[in-house]
Design goal:
single chain, alpha+beta, TBP-like, 2 domains, seven-stranded antiparallel beta sheet
């Protein structure tokens, strides 16, 4: 199919083309499905869960606060058998301490071998990557939130059911 036909077929791209005819639109091919890869094992899944738990515990210990809220879950995106492990937590009622804690988290991530980067737009947010995880931390008001997200895994339905039962 001609790339211009693809642009015309997509309502968002068609509008972009109409408003900015001088702009070259490049459509990248879709990423190959992860379900072509071998399925994750229960041990791999549990290791990811434990690793994320250890990261959060280390961060909490270093900043001297326990999370006010926390949720852990398998996140499914484009395919029902492709999932990422997510550990999300927030520290609230920090008063004026939210920004200093965010800075402390960034420094700790460096010491732990992560590669944290501040947000390009200057907002109080940072992103760090290490191994199979991405960590995003942000400060808003008197709170800091952290999301630790794993790389995607191929987790068939039967394994997912087992992981949910074990949770």
């Amino acid at each position: 199919m001609d790339p211009e036909d693809l642009v015309a077929a997509d309502p968002m791209m068609r509008t972009l083309r109409e408003r900015h005819p001088d702009v070259n639109i490049v459509l990248l091919p879709p990423v190959g499905p992860i379900v072509d890869r071998p399925s994750a094992t229960p041990a791999q899944c549990r290791a990811l869960q434990q690793h994320a738990d250890t990261v959060l515990a280390t961060l909490s210990r270093d900043v001297g606060h326990e999370p006010s809220t926390r949720v852990d879950y398998w996140w499914s995106q484009s395919h029902p058998e492709v999932r990422r492990w997510v550990t999300a937590a927030s520290y609230t009622d920090l008063g004026d301490g939210a920004l200093p804690i965010l800075r402390s988290l960034g420094n700790l991530l460096v010491r732990l071998g992560w590669e944290p980067r501040p947000a390009a737009d200057g907002s109080p947010r940072l992103r760090g990557v290490a191994g199979p995880f991405e960590l995003i931390a942000s400060a808003v008001g008197d709170a800091v939130s952290i999301n630790i997200t794993s790389d995607p895994l191929h987790i068939p339905a039967d394994l997912y059911d087992d992981l949910r039962v074990d949770a």
